[in-house]
Each structure stands twice: as structure tokens, then as C-alpha cells.
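Aim 2, interim progress: modelling of the S-adenosylmethionine-bound target.
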Amino acid sequence: SLFSRRDPATRGLGMTSQRARDRLIERLAAEGIRDRRVLEVMRQLPRHLFIDEALASRAYEDTALPIGQGQTISQPWVVARMTEALIEQRLPRRVLEVGTGSGYQCAVLAQLVEQVYTVERIDELLRNARRRFRKLGLANIRSRHDDGRLGWPDEAPFDAIIVTAAGAELEHALLDQLAEDGCLVAPVGPAGRQTLLRVRAGADGWLRESLGAVSFVPLLGGTE
Ligand code: SAM
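Predicted structure of the complex, ligand included:
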């Protein structure tokens, strides 16, 4: 596969990017990520291709990094935890992501499920992400430039929905686009007090489960 091709040492890492990824995966496992499928996909996927070359030497640190337009590529541990939470109970077939950003989270999902739909409100970020998907040969991703709070009604329902920016509340338009037995994972709350929630339909309404404190950029309206 493209990912197993020998890649050149990433400048400044002082080791091959594969070695750097192996170390990152050891660290994620030590910090509680249990799902082998998630760890293996992240071990293969070159995160340095999702950020600016000037930052590539920091690609395998467990930290969020700037991607322009005031946005960030999420911290690897957060990507791993959200992915794990999304596929834990049942492997979804069709997943909607709100907030494409760099495309990294989307590319992780595309290695695990049949089809990923992703929506980004900032056109320039989306164009960069699409270029990366093409370069990596990821053919099971459909993307659109729109306000992702509205979901993607024409393709609903989705088996799972992941939101990678924090809203004040859960978006009802998104919950309405969940398939029966589907689950949504989203950070909710104001800066400094955000909680990662997993939501599923229960017999008497939505079941919310808190997965811990997180720190995300805000979910904004409109497009640019
Ligand atoms: N999943 C991304 C990744 O792996 O790089 C995370 C990117 S960042 C933490 C969140 C992204 O959500 C930003 O690119 C931001 O522009 C986008 N965003 C914020 N509000 C949005 C909205 N209403 N619809 C779509 N995207 C939105």
C-alpha cells in the first residue's frame, strides 16, 4: 500500500517517520488507547503529510498543531480516543465527519469504515485536505464545503457522526441524521469547559455519556 512505501526521514525528526509513528503509537497505548484497529491505522498513516512542511518535524508529537485559518489538526490521542469511541460498540459502515480540517481524522476513519462523508466550512482547508486524500489514494471519502452543523441531509442517515469542533450544545440537525442504533461523538461546551460526549438513541430519548474533558476550536456557523 501507499503507506508502507519506504518514506524518507522527515527532516528534523532524526529518525524515519515510521519509527516516529511507532513511538507515538506506544505512547497512545500507554495512555489508554486500547483498540488495535485504531492503533494500527495510526501506525501506518503519515500524519506529517497533513501539516505544513515547516512543522513536519513535530508531526509525531502528541499535540495539536496549527493548519492555518486559525484552525488545528487535533492531538493524536484525541483522534484515537474519538475514533475508538465511534467504532467501539459496532463498526459503522457510513460515517459523517463535521470539520474536515487537515483531513487527518477523516483519513483515519477511511481506513476503518466503508464510506466517510466530511464537511468543512473553510474552503481553503477543504481544498488542501482533498489534495491529501488524492495523494494517498483514499477513494472512499466524499467531501463538501458547507456549514457542517446542518449535516449532509441528502446522504443521511449515518451509522456514526463525529464532530471535531466544539458547539455550545449538541446539534439537533445532526442527531436527526443518525441511523437507528447510530452514535454521535462530539465535544460540547464553552472554551475551557468542554466535554467529549457520546450520544446514542435510547428507548426514552438520547443517552449521553461523558468521555472526559477536551479542548477544541469552536464550531462556527456559515462558510468562508
Ligand atoms: N478533524 C480535523 C483534523 O483531523 O485535522 C480537525 C480540525 S479542527 C480541530 C476543526 C475543524 O472544524 C476546523 O477546520 C474548522 O474550520 C471546522 N469547523 C468549525 N465549524 C464548522 C462547521 N460549522 N462546519 C464545518 N466545519 C467546521
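The first helix runs from residue 17 to 30. Strands lie at 65-68, 71-73, 94-98, 115-120, 141-145, 158-163, 178-188, 194-202, 205-214.
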